[in-house]
Structure formats: C-alpha cells, structure tokens
Amino acid sequence: SDLIPLLLLGCLGEAGAQTMTYLHQFSTVTGTDGAEPVWVHLIQASDGDFYGTTELGGTNSAGTVFKMTSAGSMTFLYNFHGGGAPNDGQTPEAGLVQGSDGNFYGTTYEGGTNHYGTVFKMTPAGVLTNIHIFQGQAAGDGLWPFSQLIQGTDGFFYGTASGGGARGYGCVFKINSTGSLTTIYSFTNGLDGSDPYAGVFQGSDGNFYGTTQYGGGSSNCSFGGCGTVYKVTSAGTLTSLHQFGANPQDGQTPYGGIIQGYVGDYFGATSAGGTNGYGTVFRITSAGTLTILYQFGATAHDGQTPYSGLVQGSDGYLYGTTLLGGSNGNPGPGTLFKIGPTGGLIYVHSFGGVGDYGVNPKAAPVEGYDGNYYGTTFQGGTNSLGTVYKLASPVSSNPNEPSSFGLGNSNSNGPNNVILSLSTIAGETYQLQFANSLSASTIWSNVPGSVVSNAIGGPLSFTNFISGIVTQRFYRFDITP
Length: 481
Prior knowledge:
single chain, four-stranded antiparallel beta sheet, mainly beta
C-alpha cells in the first residue's frame, strides 16, 4: 500500500525551478569555524533551526556542534576539546537527535578517557554534558561510534559502535538521558555482520533495523563478507535479514542505514557492488525479501558510491547522495538523487559545476518545514572543508494529492472535527489514519469508519470526529491499489 501524508500545520505549494544555494562554506581547521561535516544528516529542531556537527575545526581542531537558520546564519554552540579535561570527546562523525526533553544527543568517534569515543547531551544553549565514555572490548563496551542516535518509543536512545562489544566487531547499544548504557547486541562477524557504521531505525513493528558494512559470510569480499541488513529487538534478539555479495547483481558494503518508507517496507543503499560495481539502492521487507531498485554506474554521468542512507520526502520520493559521479568530471564529485519506492531514479543535482562549491556529500539531505532540502558536503567550499547547502526543487504532482481540509461542527463532541477531501483513483482502497505527534517511530492509528474499499474514482470526503481538546494532529491516507 502507498501512504499519502497530510501534515495539518500549513500547506506547501509547488516549488519553482531547481536552485542550489550554499548557505555556509566551512573555512578553517583551527579557529572559530568548523570543518568537514561527514555523515551529518542535519535535523530541524523544534525551534525551526538546523543542527549538525563537524568532525574537525573549532578552537581546538577537534570538531564542533553548530546551529544554522534557514537563511544561513551560523552559530557554533560547542567546541570539542580533543583530550585531557573535560574528556568531552572529539571528532563527531554523525549528526544529532533532539530528545523529548528538548536536549540534543550525539556521539563522538574519538576522545574521552580511553580515546574510544563518547555519548553526550547538549542543551539548546550549548551546555554539553558527557554522559558516557566508551571502554572498549575488554569491558564488553563499544568503541568508535560513527552513528547518529535515535530515541525509541521506550524513551531510550539507540545507536551503534563500529568496534568493540563482547567480540570486537561492533555492537548495538541503548542509553538513557542520564548515561546508563546497555550493550544489547555484540556482532560476531558471522551471518550477523560486523563493523556497523550506520545507526538504527525503529520500524512500525517496534524492532530496530540497521546495516553492517562487513561480515555476512560472503567470500566475494574481505573482512568476512560484504555486509548485512539486520533487525534487532530492544532486548537484543537479532535476525540477519540479508547478507550482501552472494551474486554479481547484489550490493556490497552499506555505510548508510535503513529507513521505513510510507509503503511499509525498508530502504537503503550500498556503497559498492551491483552490476556496475558502483553501488545500489535496495528495498527490503521486514521478513528479509530484498529487491534491487537501482544499479549505479549505468550511464556515463551516473552517480557512484552512495555513502549515505535515504530520507523520504513529502512527495513520496526517497532522497540520497552519492560521494562520486555526476556530470562534472570523471569520476565526478557526487550527486543528489531521488528515487521512487519501486525504482526510477531521477538526478536532482550534480555537485561541482561552475559556481557550485560543494563536493563529495556523504549524507542525505533533510526536508525543511519550508519544503526545501538542506544538507552538507564533506568537502568543497572556499578551503575544501565542506559546505551546507539548500536545494529548492520542483515537487512532483501526486494523483492522490489531498484537495482540501477544514474544521467543522458536525458532531456534538466539539468543534475540532476535521473534514478532509481528496481525489481518488477507481479500484483503490483508502484508509484515513492519524497520529498526535511525529517521530522516526510514530505509530499511526486508523480513523474509525474512515475507509472506502474499491473506490469508483472522483472526490471523497472523510470526517474525523474529535472529542476533547487536541492541540495538534497529523493525518495520512493508507492507499492500497
């Protein structure tokens, strides 16, 4: 089934011609500016600003945390120290997550007492607290975390460490806001994989989904295999869903993570492998059935080597980047692409053209509240130390685009009744769903009585009768062809 989202906090119109704007060019390794944002998936926080990290730069050359307005006004909130007091870590490789308490949580790849990395929390004002210092394999703890954290439905923050754990091949952990950390799974370099770079994503079934860059048992790759896709419970029961590298068409070495699309299945990319050897985009079910949606390197100016995971936009497309490839050189400094849930890749932007300063993106962009896409490039800019960009791109029309919504008084329960209308396609089934908040782990509920099976086409109207006071509510249609 397809899911058409309705966010009743305003309407986005169709964008004009595609425009790339560079909001910030990182300029110094030592000084007040940051340098080299790596696997930094920006987040737009509750205050409307964008937050991220750089692995280098800042006053101690150990990395920074920054916030930026949609207009490009940059504020550096924290400069990591990189050793000695206060043991706050250094080299944050991934971005942040905003917790339900309003604070920001993240990891550093190095630093801390043992130089194995840290987990930190930071207030919106930039006051940072080190809540965990990784101890390494000898203590059964992880080391060298590359991953961005997520907050699960149980309130814990979940992430991965690329090394350490009980066996030395990395682990999945959970940690609370005060720093109590539990290693819930240690990889073995068998069919389960090893060396997870990406974090995890909590699916609608409550399980956590992720990738490992190595392991899986294939003899076609070094380090024990070509990587895996896995799911793991919060209690640590892991199921290996796919081992890459079994055939020439399969992908290899996924650095990016997994997301769940509106259709319910999961999506990701591999940095290598596939028919042309330059990586793939794939779709996988919760039971492990994997479909390759695209093989990179098929054309002369195709993208190559996607290091990033994917994000799904409000238009239903999945957005990602490739580190190399594109139309500006050989092999080219990378691309930004979008792809549908069943395939059909579209090149949105090739980096490195005339007047285009960003190159080599390692993370996917994020869609802002304004409908534009915001992201980072690892290199490029004035001193080749990376950039932050904004891409305004036309939004594709959708045959099931909701046509109107409004508030009514058609029920005695109160004035908050929501009436939604949309155009339909004959033969499809439409179920209206709602949630009172949005997060990576939102669970949607069916609106009672708001389902039409085997539609005859034309407009439909649904009403959600709401009792009591509801300050916000989000709607979507679950559409089955």
